[in-house]
Amino acid sequence: MRAPISLVLPLFLLASNFAFSENPAPQQSIASTEAESLKHGLTLYRTGRFDDAIVSYQSALSQNPKSGQAYAGLVRCYLKQEKIQEAAATVKGASEIVPTSSALQVAAGELLFRQGDIAGAEKQFVAVINSGAVEPRAYLGLERISRAISMYKRAKRMIDTAHDLDPQDPEISRVWLSTLNRADRRKELERYLAQQTNDDQETLEALQRSLELLKDEEKEPAKRCRLANDLSSSESSLEAILNGPNHLVGYGLNVKLNGHGSRLLVDTGASGVVLGRRAAEKAGITALVSSKLYGIGDKGAVNSFFGYADSIRVGDLEFRDCLVEVSEKKNAMDIDGLIGTDVFDDFLITLDMPNMRLRLKTLPPRAGEAAKPKGLKTATPTVAQDTPDLNSAIAAQKNADPARTVSTQPPALSGPQDRYIAPEMESFSRVFRFGHDLLIPTMLGDKPPKLFLIDTGAVGNLVSPAAAREVTKVSRDETIEIRGLNGKVEKVYRADRATLTFSRFKQQNQDIVAFDLSGISKNLGTEVSGALGFPILRLLEITIDYRDGLVGFNYDPKRWPRP
Prior knowledge:
This protein is of the alpha+beta class.
């Protein structure tokens, strides 16, 4: 790897040139110059001028080769640019020079999080906080992890602390404003968007859409997605979705939108209801806010819009006044759209794939809490893990991290709550939740677990070429055609003899499709190395608890050959 040479050695040379200068500048002048470079670098970083920020941080290092803050700034710039190898090389080189720098340790934690080592990142952030160092981004890092493992009450404490320490950090501000009530969120979001930040264009467009929707909700405050009927359980049939006469690619639900029937693919990798234009027109759904859909494929985002569905009926369950997204793209298969399982996140969701049934029932109440009343449907945040490696690493931190202390008092009935694992769900796998996406630790061969997406909408098991190359031969295969929401994938590979192990199951894949998943990883902010797709998931009964980040897998050997 050439990165360590280009990043670190020139800094050493600059340091040597300075150290042996015949007329060195006074120490106070050096410190002043370093401080100015750091301050300028931070301003450039926070306004999205990453290349210029790198130059400024390198200038600071030319003045002080042991500046942990400058190294941390470089790492963050590279991470924002998705230059993960450069960030890793910088952390490795700098750790030998300033191993005790708290700023560098926090940046190293951010790198670990991006690489998918969430337990390692948590250990890093907790150590910095427990050391007494004042590092606002350590609390931001713990907020991200807390959401990912469904510790929402803890996440709120972390982001409030981070914002109190540094309200000018745009990444802290963006997360913090999402925790506010609607009125305050709208005001803070307007203020946030009025200034220059380091968000990419896709993020800025999403935030602008959120602001437009918040303004629309203020005009009609009663128009909020909610369950119209109070049911403790519900059951519906899953319908086979075919691509061709005999090619089963998924299961769907018959859904009535404003009284008009539609067939929607059940997709654990999607969020909400996404319709084709024809189905939306039939249901009388009109555009409210323009948007874009991002997914698999190399043809770019698909134009779309959000609109309200007055009624969405699935079996005997009905939702009212819910936003749905409408794609401008022509349907690729004989379906009217997608329905993400997160639509039912107020319930314990069971996809009984072998028997082609969707079952919903009330989530188990938390200890000391009455059963949750049905009513307004609210979006819930993110998920955790079930492998010995990560669990032991996380468990080892319990005593060191007061935020993880388990209270014996009954939890409050309002506000965000931390994960609760009901006794009957102890055997469930703990997964990481990033928005609607559920990531489960999965071993590829005998390598340490990596994060795989649970995706019933994927027509096969998928893996990134980089992850596959760690365990097997990977070769280009132009005979395979992969098409997603964003068109055809141009570079598709085939990986040989890749064994997948997740939860309690192992499957030998003689061939597995591999292609670049960096877009998904960038969007989630952590490395996604593959996806468990429909062919393996259809063998299982899958029970999902979005509230607590838990997924149960049940396999009936009488029904199928062993996976």
